[in-house]
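The record is given unchanged here:
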Amino acid sequence: MSISANSGKPVMDGFPPSVDSQVTKKNHRDWPYSQWAFRNFGAPNNVVMVPRAGEIAHFDRSEDALDSFELDGDTLAAIFESNAADALLVIKGDTVVHESYYNGMDAHQQHIWYSMTKSLMSSIVGLLVESDQLDLEKSPADYITELKGSTFERVTVQQVLNHATALAFEENYVDPTSDFFLYYAPALNLGYLPGAADLQPGDSDIYGVYDFLTRFVEPNDALVPGHKFEYNSANADVLGWLISRLMNKPLNTIIHESVWSKLGAEHDAFVAVDRAYIPVATGGFNATARDAARFGMMIRDKGVFGGERILPAKWLEQMLEVSDADRQAMTRNENYSQADWIAYRDMWWILDDETGEFCAVGIHGQVIYINRSANTVMVWFSSQRDAASTLAPEFPVKLNAARAAAQFLAE
């Protein structure tokens, strides 16, 4: 099934590129310019590095395991190619059983994760919980004094992790007059507003994303925290702030030391920074598909990679301990009433808590799909036209195909 074919329009065409094909800060999230920008995210944005380390953990390969798989007459690769995918990698156990790239992308190019970054941040939180540095039932303001008096003082860290913080601020990726476009995106340094990138510290009350959290976000007094799942990226920015404050290091250093240096990654990763050059915890991480798969394998295997423990098993099991309250919080959000998600917990999208089927998800169609019962990890990067991730038309087509392929591999 094809929802949106890939673009035939030249992007970054020529040396120098023609005016019509030029990617800019302003258009880099607009299709088809995004097809180039999402795999060259450091060009229109500011970034800091997350270096790899150690020997590369090479994969075994057996790329005929899906040769006989079809869904409605289409192969897995064809389904993804015709639905705005840039990359698709399928791992069964420790073996690559499929790898495809589209739109000029290849195995050695990093791609923006967007909100899959949230799940990476959540995984690191497990280290703070295990060491008793962080109590999930306390308020973020108990650890970050700057949040005293803010809307985040009235919520718990667990509610932040579950996006159940009852915030009045809403994300709107399409309305140029929205608060997201006028304040949040410029503070994140990921959106375009005339003159915003030239702003200097002190020129505005909202310079970086931490200013946005403390000075702009207001509570939704019609809701009680914990009652309803409402996806809001500001929660992940609070989480990133907590991690940096408690570990007393920049996020890019923490990601390197806690995770990336231990995965046998093939390539360095990098993370976009906000206007104050603080790494964007809510959606700034960039890595290759293979390295994203290594991270996914470690999560699938409850914190172990290459025989070495990286993250606490208890933390990576807890996120699948879905309660009735978690389910009800999801069902109270009408936007997800027809979707397959049963809950959103610890910044992971849960499909099936019994079989261990869950995802990290980013806007424009970025996914790390994990299925513990099928011993499978899939990574796909996309440049979908719409920013909406799970609600975009291409998204369920690819997710349903991935779930069917995982079942096929399990059998």
